[in-house]
Amino acid sequence: MQVPNSVPYPIDHIARGGAPDAPALVTKAQTLNFATLEADVGALAAVLRELVPTAGARVATWLPKTVEACLMPLAAPRAGLVHVPINPVLKRAQVAHILSDSAASIVLSSNARLATLQPGDLPEGCTVWHEEEARRARSGPVRLPPSVADPESLAAILYTSGSTGRPKGVMLSHANLWLGAVSVAHYLALRPDDRTLAVLPLGFDYGQNQLFSTWKAGGAVYPFDFLMPKDLWRAIERSGITTLAAVPPLWLQLIEVDMPPATGVRRITNSGGALTPIMIERLRTRFPNADVFPMYGLTEAFRSTYLPPTLVTTHPSSMGRAIPFAEVMAVASDGSEATVGQPGELVHAGPLVAHGYWRDSERTAVRFKPAPAWSKSGGIAVWSGDTVMCDVDGLFYFVGRDDEMIKSSGHRISPLEIEEAALSSGIVAEAVAHAIPDLALGQAIRLVVRGSGDSEALGAHLKRELPSHMQAKIIQWCEEMPRNANGKLDRSSIRSEGL
Predict the structure, then answer these.
(1) Nearest one of 100, 52, 63, 8 to 358, comparing CA atoms
(2) What is residue 186's three-state secondary structure?
């Protein structure tokens, strides 16, 4: 396969990836071809520049997968602004944090979502842009041409949970996004006649790349929000979908639905958790003509590895090898390159590495550090905190996670966010959240608390404060929490002893 072009361009140029009359974005109500996509991005960008004239200002989008939500990742950078997509399932407190932390100048959302915000949730100087206004802006008379932005300039901030606090913003340049699109389009062998059903949230790098990689290949994106798995199966059949990306819990839902096999799907991709051999076998039954692409990614470097479909049967537990433009290494504890079969920390170097965490130099210094001296790429690398090992064929295998992040349903979840929500109830005095194995979710959440013992009241409070994927599967009460010699909560004991 030919090596992809490594020259980055401003991300808004991706709107010109297909033939002008070819479909680019297809919804139930309308179809935008690439000529219309380019025009609408330019019109939105023109209005955004009027609304927010300061270059580099942040503009947030808090919407489901509407047409406007799909265009904003290109329109904002074209206007010289930085796009901040917010996952629509997040609750008020989390949205308020992202708007405040990013110092957003404007937030595009619906009346219903905006009505959930409380006084003080919008940061000073942040104005509201209603989705109806953005919809009208697409037909405006002025259209900005493709930008001439420096590919290394900031284009987006994607918020991801951290193990020690609220969501942190990962800074992504035009080059990060462009080369991520080129890389995925290349190793998936996407084509102009491909149709991608975009079911993942656009606030995730995995979800946003559904747009960029498909458009880079000249294909069509079908954004889709669904309630029932059968709805998704019907959409696949109705729209002639060829490409589908999902996380393990969604795959489990799909393979359990009694529907005919989706014979037109050419490829399915997975990230956010490993596929078991049984799941892979069942997926091949439901998608008999599809190549299966297991993948591993970090928001801080987009994606690190993929397993070629030809190796899935013989190496089902492997993470695969580095994607194009990524240098992936297993670094031993002494800083040397880990030998075959030796555990080491996964370190990712190269042009896909993000520019650090927004306004957080302390956490940036922990995760973004110089690559090992023996690295081919050099520069700043992402030190993942994940332990991996490499086999004689150069394939990586996941060993364990060094930090306390919970990975459930494809979401990276901060234990501290859950603990803070529990403590804010006034019902508990102490709280520790941690992961427990779960066949459906990959990991579920167990919340250990000391307090009044009112599980019903605590559960109701957590449902108000946290989205569904952050709800505890088990709430366990105890009279005393284990402590270490320094008087701090002994989290290791709580996890290992089931307290």
Answers:
(1) 100
(2) helix
Helix (H) / strand (E) element for 450: namely strand 442-451
pTM, rounded to two decimals: 0.86
Tokens found for residue 386:
């994940």
DSSP summary character for residue 473: S
| Average pLDDT over all residues of the chain | 93
Among residues 244, 241, 207, the alpha carbon closest in space to that of 64 is found at 207
User: Residue 325 and residue 179: Cα distance in Å, rounded?
Assistant: 7
Over residues 314-333, the pLDDT tens digits come to 999 899 999 999 999 999 99
Query: What is the Cβ-side half-sphere exposure of residue 175, based on CA atoms within 13 angstroms?
Result: 15
Cβ neighbourhood burial of 148 (10 Å; 0-12, 13-18, 19+):
exposed
- Ramachandran sector of residue 385 (left: φ over 0; alpha: ψ -120 to 50; beta: rest): left
Please give the distance of CA 10 from its chain centroid, rounded to a whole number.
21
Q: List the beta bridge partners of residue 483.
A: 489
Number of H-type helices and E-type strands within the chain = 14, 25
Separation between Cα atoms, residue 427 and residue 120, nearest integer Å: 25
User: What are the Cα distances from residue 325, in Å, to 4, 7, 301, 334?
Assistant: 9, 11, 11, 26
Strands 58-62 and 82-85: parallel
Cα–Cα dist 203/206, whole Å: 9
Can you tell me the distance from the alpha carbon of 81 to that of 73, in angstroms, rounded to the nearest whole number? 10
What does the pLDDT average to over 414-439?
A: 88
Look at the alpha carbons of 132, 137, 138, 141 in this order and tell me if their dihedral is positive or negative: positive
Orientation angle between helical segments 415-423 and 455-465, nearest 10 degrees? 120
User: In terms of residues, how long is the chain?
Assistant: 499
Tell the residue number behind the tokens 């080491």, with chain if given: 344
- How far apart CA 56 and CA 143 sit, in angstroms, is 19
Supply 465's token pair: 């404060």
Give the three-state DSSP class for 121: coil
Please work out, in degrees rounded to the nearest 5, the angle formed at the alpha carbon of residue 131 by the alpha carbons of 129 and 137.
Answer: 80
Give pLDDT tens digits for 356-391: 999 999 999 999 999 999 999 999 999 999 989 999
